[in-house]
Prior knowledge:
Layout: H1 2-17, H2 30-42, H3 46-60, H4 71-84, H5 88-101, H6 108-121, H7 125-136, H8 143-157, H9 163-171, H10 179-192, H11 200-209, H12 213-217, H13 221-243, H14 247-304
Amino acid sequence: MKTRLRLFIGILACWLAWPMGVEGGxxxxxxxxxxxxxxxxxxxxxxxxxxxxxxxxxAARHGSNTEFPRVEEAMFRLAVNLAQAxxxxxxxxxxxxxxxxxxxxxxxxxxxxxxGLIYERAGAREEAVRRYQRLAEMGMETELSALSRLRLAxxxxxxxxxxxMARGHLQAVEHPKLKEPVRELIRxxxxxxxxxxxxxxxxxxxxxxxxxxxHLYLDRAEDAGMALLSNGxxxxxxxxxFSKGISGLGAALGVVELGWYSGTIFSxxxxxxxxxxxxxxxxxxxxxxxxxxxIETIGLEMEWxx
Length: 306
């Protein structure tokens, strides 16, 4: 009943304010507008919630801090609801506006974490790292800072050669809620270097010696057979052309064979890197499936506690 009453008051306030504009009745009911936006957010109507928080923020530019005491929270919730509505560009702009207008706002840490998550899910790894790093370096012994280090560790684990960096981030996480997930991740981190990787140098040298041998080393018998057959035919054609005195054809086939031979070596080396990356990603996905429920629950609790 109380929720319905608040919703009715919010709708009525917005309806009365609409024709009067910012200089009229809208300024006289900022808390009602904020409450209405909160109700929409609780109902997961994120687009409309973002619209209402946006109106509150817009009106606050024409009012005073006493009239709009929750403007920082409104700016944060505006960005969050935009993100929830999959309007990520607008969400990132809104988070940036909050940082520019209120650089010391208590909502900045949560904004940085949210921005990092948006960039991470969009595949913009470096942008995500910048936000997580900034949050981690704020010097706060908080849940959010701990979670940012966990995200930094996870991103480092996904990139070969950054295992020690990942370990450093994990060892810096001291929040009690993350202790067990961190211990498990450190154990799994030790396994990353012991996965059945193949050596790109070996695959390349084997292919150089016998076309297809490098692919066979990668357990790709079909590719190995194709490489051996195609290079063999071109080489045989080149030799036969020269033996019959058709030097022009022999030279042409030789050039083709040289390119094909080089491409076969490159293919073996490239496939080795890709196969190693796939093995690594499969292992990381397995780890994440085990850790995701615990970490996501903690993350949501951390992000929304304010």
